[in-house]
Amino acid sequence: MEINEYNTLVTTSEGYYKDKGSKFIALAYHVESEEDVKEIQSALRKKYYDARHHCYAYRISPEKEYFRSSDDGEPSGTAGKPILNQLLSYELYNVLIVVVRYFGGTKLGVSGLIQAYKSATKDAIQNNKVFKKYITKQIELSFEYPLMNQVMRVIKNENIKIIKQDFDSNCRIMVEIKKKSINIAHMKFEKIRGVTIT
Length: 198
Fold this sequence. Notes:
By secondary structure, this protein is of the alpha+beta class. The chain has helices at residues 34-47, 80-89, 109-126, 148-157, 182-191; strands at residues 5-9, 13-19, 22-30, 53-60, 66-70, 95-102, 130-134, 136-143, 161-166, 171-178, 196-197.
């Protein structure tokens, strides 16, 4: 099934869970790449240098999905997986959630840990705003000035976003089109003789 839109988080948010003295601080971020993930993780390791665990999960790119999770020393499957499962249940992409744990001295057991990581993550998501994003493609249109009205009419009718325009000797417009509308828009631009699409 082709994906045209996806859910993501726009801002940074925090979630919190406490059990038997252990504190779980969940931090949610919008990310676009693994480089973003690494930068955030390294900043969090400095900020929460005294925490026992830095468990996380992320999901990137709805078109060629890539995800990863880590228990960071917690028993296998008790931290990274519950965090990832929340990303899956909210259908979130391009999101990283790190849960920092301060150990309170009492072990919580497998089910206690799963509950703690899940609850902290859920709290961070609910303290954020889930935002629907459309997958888009960018194309550049080149044409002579007399074709301006026809090109602009297609842009207006198809609700296409202009990213940049340059009307020096020749007209060039860079536009962003929703993936699901790309074929229709492409066809309409092709019908205007003299428009080059790249």
